[in-house]
Write a structure and sequence with these properties.
The protein has 128 residues and is mainly alpha-helical. It is built from four helices and three strands. The chain has a three-stranded antiparallel beta sheet, covered by helices on one side. Helix 1 packs antiparallel against helix 3, helix 1 crosses helix 4 and helix 3 packs antiparallel against helix 4.
């Protein structure tokens, strides 16, 4: 499994989970609860404090789906540019831009570093 395949698999799972949670925005209330932000709100969670409720509501299924869409577009652009480079359309500028895209992919994979399929070689290099 390469980095792109790994990321696509993680995004597919993120999407499935978000869709299973209704895909609607959530809102926090001062009472420490989180509900769906719809005409007929559904209870999502009750937490110990307002900060937890706000955090949970900000990372709602709707936002997760938007993030999946954005990250897939980044992957698509990386693959498109890889194909172009593979066709022999090379220049120092194109190769440098692709190196930046690869760094972005490595950064996108970091939140999944706990996953057993994550490979340490994907970890971005840290600056000295």
């Amino acid at each position: 499994m390469d980095l792109v395949e790994f990321l696509r698999a993680r995004l597919d799972k993120d999407e499935r989970i978000a869709r299973a949670c209704s895909g609607t925005p959530w809102k926090a209330t001062p009472s420490g609860t989180v509900s769906t932000d719809t005409d007929e709100p559904a209870h999502v969670a009750t937490v110990d404090n307002d900060a937890y409720a706000e955090h949970i509501s900000r990372h709602n299924p709707s936002r997760a789906l938007d993030e999946v869409t954005a990250r897939r577009q980044i992957l698509d652009e990386y693959e498109k540019q890889s194909w172009i480079l593979g066709q022999g359309h090379r220049s120092p500028e194109l190769e440098a831009a692709q190196a930046v895209r690869e760094t972005v992919l490595r950064l996108l994979a970091l939140p999944y570093a706990f996953h057993p399929a994550y490979q340490e070689e994907w970890r971005p290099q840290t600056s000295p």
